[in-house]
Design a protein that fits this description.
By secondary structure, the chain is of the alpha/beta class. It has one domain: Alkaline Phosphatase, subunit A. Helices cover 33% and strands 17% of the residues. Helix 8 runs antiparallel to helix 9 and helix 11 packs parallel to helix 12. It starts with a helix and ends in a 15-residue tail after the last strand.
């Protein structure tokens, strides 16, 4: 088939008139009205029907803890476990649950209680591990959900499920859906920004894949833009050596002319994305260096995030950058931190991991609160699943044992952005193994986030391969009991 005619052949009569009326008309209107047609301050608008209802949250900061933080050790206090240490996990509790290949053939499943004591925190008296004292300091600001559950049993499918609504790669990520639905509020920065970090010991071999922040089958202009911790914050943002800014601008303008000609010929949305991304990159050359320079932050703010804030690429630095991005109007900020996969080093690495992440996570909430931003910023902290109550390996070895993956019941916390503060929602049984009340599925969690942003998760869809897809697939209910 001749590629010059392929696009015209694929267009139906209805699509042709629809695109002629709205597509060309909107371009003409934008040309006449300039920035006002794009939104106040020049930001790009999302879908015309958005938001569906009043939004309690204007932005999301998702502190994704890759590897599976142990709810048994951090958030879900079970005093009875101390008495049963070393005893076999009862079959009546396990109920035949599938285990990973790492423990499926383990002859014994000995109960392993929390490795550190819990303590009451805040006016609410919330019980949290002494491993996370800074999180305990914001206990009255957070909602801990103890009844999360997922079908995924391994890391990549579980992370993909949380971030895209499917265990199979290829769907748009949550941040991409938000970007697609709501658009941008700052033309000089991306709508969706991602930062990654990991434990300095490199104890966890889990990878952070690009599709965790990808756009799937919706146009790629909605995918997350990754800010790096070293070198240029964004790849290829700096001008090549010997190329001044005005010359670079001229080159980009000529390139845009060629791309627009190709767009007119073929109508490929990826060409439109390329045009928009080149424009964004040029504007980011001025906005990003100032944004990533933390030398202007007061000492007491830097101290609040901890000494690791001075190390580029650290979780602490990324938390501070997240607050700065939120101030500039970035809608969805996703921090991916790896290092929680503690199969054989729980007695040592869990404490190190908590030390690296606890203070900055709490500092972010405090920082937003003192700036009056917490009320309309939703902060989320959690992993893709929890850990088993039984020990993996010899639990009497003081340094070499751990816990396996556990998706049937685990914990995470949320704060701000329309969430009730200082509460615990849901409960597990005495072994922190099965959910006893108020289960919250991954799709319920996603539906609730979208609701807080003013989006009806059932109505924000994208047609692809003959059906309308959404973040929550065909499931999901808003968890209204945790809404303020």
């Amino acid at each position: 088939m001749n590629p010059f005619f392929e696009r015209d052949i694929q267009l139906t009569r209805r699509q042709f008139f629809s695109r002629s009326a709205t597509g060309l008309g909107s371009v003409a209107l934008a040309s006449i009205l300039g920035k006002s047609a794009r939104g106040e301050g020049g930001q790009s608008l999302g879908q015309s029907s958005m938001p569906h209802h009043f939004a309690k949250a204007k932005r999301v900061i998702y502190l994704m803890q890759g590897g599976g933080p142990s709810h048994v050790d951090l958030f879900d206090y079970k005093p009875m476990l101390g008495e049963r240490r070393g005893m076999q996990l009862p079959d009546s509790v396990r109920m035949g649950q599938r285990l990973t290949t790492m423990t499926a053939n383990q002859l014994e499943l000995p109960v392993l209680p929390a490795i550190k004591p819990f303590q009451r925190c805040g006016r609410s008296g919330m019980l949290l591990s002494e491993l996370i004292p800074h999180t305990g300091g914001i206990a009255d600001d957070i909602c801990v959900i103890n009844s999360m559950h997922t079908e995924a049993i391994n890391h990549a499918p579980a992370c993909t499920f949380f971030l895209t609504g499917s265990q199979i790669p290829g769907r748009p990520s949550m941040g991409a859906w938000v970007s697609y639905g709501l658009g941008s509020s700052n033309e000089n920065l991306p709508t969706f920004v991602v930062m990654t970090s990991r434990d300095r010991e490199n104890s966890c071999g889990q990878l952070l894949f690009d599709y965790y922040w990808g756009s799937g089958f919706i146009p790629s202009k909605y995918q997350g833009v990754r800010f790096r911790g070293e070198g240029d914050s964004v790849l290829y943002l700096s001008n090549p050596k010997g190329i001044p800014r005005n010359l670079r601008k001229g080159l980009l303008e000529d390139l845009e002319t060629l791309n627009r000609q190709k767009l007119e010929d073929y109508g490929d949305p990826e060409t439109a994305t390329r045009i928009a991304q080149y424009e964004m990159a040029f504007r980011m050359q001025a906005s990003v260096p100032e944004l990533t320079d933390i030398s202007t932050e007061p000492k007491h703010i830097l101290d609040m995030y901890g000494s690791d804030v001075h190390r580029p690429g650290s979780f602490a630095r990324n938390c501070l950058q997240a607050r700065r991005l939120a101030e500039k109007g970035v809608r969805f900020i996703q921090l991916m931190h790896a290092g929680w996969d503690q199969h054989g080093n729980l007695p040592t690495q869990l404490e190190i991991q908590c030390r690296d992440t606890d203070q900055p996570s709490a500092a972010l909430v405090k920082d937003l609160k003192q700036r009056g931003m917490l009320d309309d910023t939703l902060v989320i902290w959690g992993g893709e699943f929890g850990r088993t109550v039984f020990g993996q390996g010899n639990i009497n070895n003081k340094v070499k044992h751990g816990r396996d993956h556990h998706g049937r019941a685990f914990s995470l916390w949320m704060a701000g952005g329309g969430i009730k503060p200082g509460i615990r929602y849901g409960a597990t049984d005495d072994f922190a193994w099965n959910i006893a009340e108020n289960p919250v599925h991954v799709h319920d969690f996603q539906a609730t986030i979208m609701h807080l942003l003013g989006i009806d998760h059932e109505r924000l869809t994208y047609r692809y391969q003959g059906r309308r897809f959404r973040l929550t697939d065909v499931h999901g209910h808003v968890v209204k009991d945790i809404l303020a």
